[in-house]
Backbone:
């Protein structure tokens, strides 16, 4: 009985390393260091690549001219390349009416379906031009609405690395892999994705990350492994709703 439970917990506990804001302009010194860590510990991360980056803040970082060649190299290593917005420019503010009740700036939420379709289309076109096949997405600042999902489905994208809960799940015919914490953190149970904003890292963040990796090496999973853990069991649905309720309440109280 206990060994069965222990096995269940082991099989359903894992963390997917998701890197945000990978673009032509970024902190390449830190990216090269992080790549070495991924290689050393045989990690296959998910890279959230911004196809048409026009975000002023991100554009202030050094530019890599052979960026897309580099993306293809990463992809050939078996790293998952996912689309992170199109331009990463926020031109709408969500008043917590976005799908996850996150609030704040948005490139997608609040725009018409036509606008969202055209943004997804131009993002995907860039990947196509660069011969990189895309199957998943996550929006800048976690802000989506129903139109975002419709626009994505219009192009056959049905996987999103975002959301609440303990386990990956399906909702609105989209597969979600939850992303709960700002810090790299492993829950004692469940499947989660991290969010790493490398541009803001310092040496101490590398040290913390490397220690985390060493300690949890057998818990780091790949994107495909995370997808295989989709579980639409009512128990997990309840937990997800609880998580989302608590987090929304926390955000309301904070403001
Ligand atoms: Zn971002």
Residues:
């Amino acid at each position: 009985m206990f060994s069965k439970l222990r096995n269940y917990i082991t099989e359903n506990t894992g963390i997917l390393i998701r890197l945000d804001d990978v673009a032509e302009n970024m902190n390449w010194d830190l990216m090269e260091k992080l790549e070495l860590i991924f290689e050393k510990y045989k990690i296959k991360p998910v890279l959230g690549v911004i196809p048409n980056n026009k975000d002023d803040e991100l554009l202030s970082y050094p530019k890599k001219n052979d960026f897309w060649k580099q993306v293809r190299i990463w992809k050939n290593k078996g790293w998952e390349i996912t689309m992170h917005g199109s331009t990463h420019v926020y031109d709408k503010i969500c008043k917590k009416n976005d799908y996850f009740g996150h609030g704040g700036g948005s490139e997608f939420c609040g725009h018409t379906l036509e606008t969202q379709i055209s943004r997804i289309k131009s993002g995907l076109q860039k990947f196509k031009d660069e011969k990189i096949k895309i199957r998943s997405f996550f929006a800048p600042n976690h802000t989506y609405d129903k139109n975002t999902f419709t626009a994505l489905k219009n192009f056959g994208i049905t996987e999103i690395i975002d959301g609440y809960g303990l386990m990956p799940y399906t909702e609105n015919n989209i597969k979600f892999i939850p992303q709960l914490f700002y810090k790299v953190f492993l829950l004692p149970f469940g499947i989660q994705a991290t969010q790493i904003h490398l541009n803001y890292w310092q040496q101490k963040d590398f040290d913390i990350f490397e220690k985390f990796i060493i300690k949890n090496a057998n818990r780091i999973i790949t994107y495909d492994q995370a997808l295989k853990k989709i579980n639409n069991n009512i128990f997990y649905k309840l937990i997800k709703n609880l998580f989302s309720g608590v987090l929304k309440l926390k955000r309301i109280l904070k403001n």
